[in-house]
Write a structure and sequence with these properties.
Order of helices and strands: HHEHEHEHEHEHHEHEHHEHEHEEHEH
Oligomer: single chain
Strand order of the largest sheet: 3-2-1-4-5-6-7
Strand content: 15-25%
Shape: globular
Low-confidence stretches: none
Radius of gyration: 22 Å
Number of helices: 15
Helix content: 40-55%
């Protein structure tokens, strides 16, 4: 089974190679950390037998999952003060957030799930525990970890209805893969029911809840500081007559529609000061969103350039990472992206936390 999986992974990689090249050449989207993705980590990640510290490897795919790690690592840090925490991500944006929060010396790109790459990383960092955030299933990783006696825990797991339909088709294979996990910690009872239905052993499933709720109640001082900075240097929206729409995690095609809505609203004398904050889902689209607003005849103020003069422009561009959650707190109305195009909407949990 694992040989077939590896062969399919190779075929998938070759099939998507033209897509990667297109993004790299035409859209400026590159895939950094290629050596690390093939298991070649820098020397400072190598476990020192004389160190004696336990190594815990946390893996999170992108920005949201990486941010949700903060309360977990803080709590574990108090219980295991001598442990070394290492972090891997898949996306460049997730990598940048992890570096900012956990230090560059502790962050690397997740290896492609080839046996040789996984073995190389496991032998290099020698983790005592692997914690995977969200439902990312890497058959070779969990198998090789179990062969070495390394427990693997899935945290904040979820199975969407769409994923559940697909996973059920692979139940015989997934049942074997799930045997390699030590714990499957799901967000809800429904997620627990679904993962059991696709083959996970009931005895290792638990429902501690959604880690994003924990993040919402932690780091109050630093979050208040960020909120003040956003208000003073970016949003400037203290006028009750200037409503603010925050559009988070937008995708291609959605900005144009939202800008048309903004223009229509501003034609109403009572809503003439309405502003729109755009936060594209992917950083490589920041400039594209600004150009779309400019083409609609709307001035743009960028978060990354607080010294610009057009601070009261009708369009605000949140071209930074990790600040969208706090920006939601200023909104009169929130739009969550992926819902005007055929993509699938993103989480409404963060704006809901501010009662928006």
């Amino acid at each position: 089974m694992y040989l077939l999986y590896s062969l399919l992974l190779i075929i998938w990689g070759f099939a998507l190679l033209p897509v990667f090249l297109y993004k790299a050449l035409r859209r400026g989207k590159r895939m950094p950390g290629m050596r690390q993705r093939f298991g070649r980590l820098p020397r400072h990640f190598r476990a020192d037998p004389r160190d004696g510290r336990a190594v815990i490897w946390f893996h999170s795919c992108s920005v949201g999952e990486t941010l949700s790690l903060e309360p977990l690592t803080r709590a574990l840090g108090r219980r295991l003060p001598d442990a070394r925490f290492l972090f891997s991500t898949v996306t460049q944006t997730g990598h940048e957030i992890a570096v900012r929060n956990f230090g560059e010396e502790n962050v690397f790109y997740f290896p492609i799930d080839f046996t040789f790459a996984i073995r190389r990383v496991l032998g290099w960092i020698r983790p005592s525990l692997i914690v995977i955030i969200d439902t990312e299933i890497w058959p070779n990783l969990v198998r090789q970890a179990r062969n070495r006696g390394i427990p693997v825990a899935l945290a904040n797991g979820r199975i969407s209805p769409k994923s559940f339909r697909h996973y059920r088709l692979a139940r015989p294979v997934l049942r074997r893969v799930f045997q390699n996990y030590a714990a499957l910690m799901m967000q809800s009872e429904e997620d627990a029911r679904r993962i059991a239905a696709i083959g996970a052993p009931v005895g290792i499933i638990s429902t501690p809840g959604n880690m994003k709720f924990d993040r919402g109640s932690s780091q109050k001082d630093s979050r208040e500081k960020l909120r003040r900075d956003l208000a003073e240097n970016f949003i400037h929206n203290t006028d009750a007559a200037a409503p603010l729409i925050v559009a988070g995690s937008t995708h291609p095609g959605e900005e144009r529609i939202l800008l048309e809505v903004l223009l229509e609203l501003r034609r109403d004398p009572d809503l003439a000061k309405t502003r729109l904050l755009l936060a594209p889902r992917h950083p490589e689209r920041f400039d594209e969103a600004a150009e779309t607003a400019g083409a609609a005849g709307l001035a743009v103020f960028k978060r990354s350039r607080p010294d610009e003069e057009n601070k009261f422009a009708p369009v605000l561009l949140l071209d930074t990472l990790g600040e969208l959650s706090e920006a939601y707190s200023f909104a009169d109305i929130v739009f969550v992206g992926g819902t005007l195009v055929r993509h699938g909407g993103h989480s409404i949990l963060e704006p809901a936390a501010f009662s928006k």
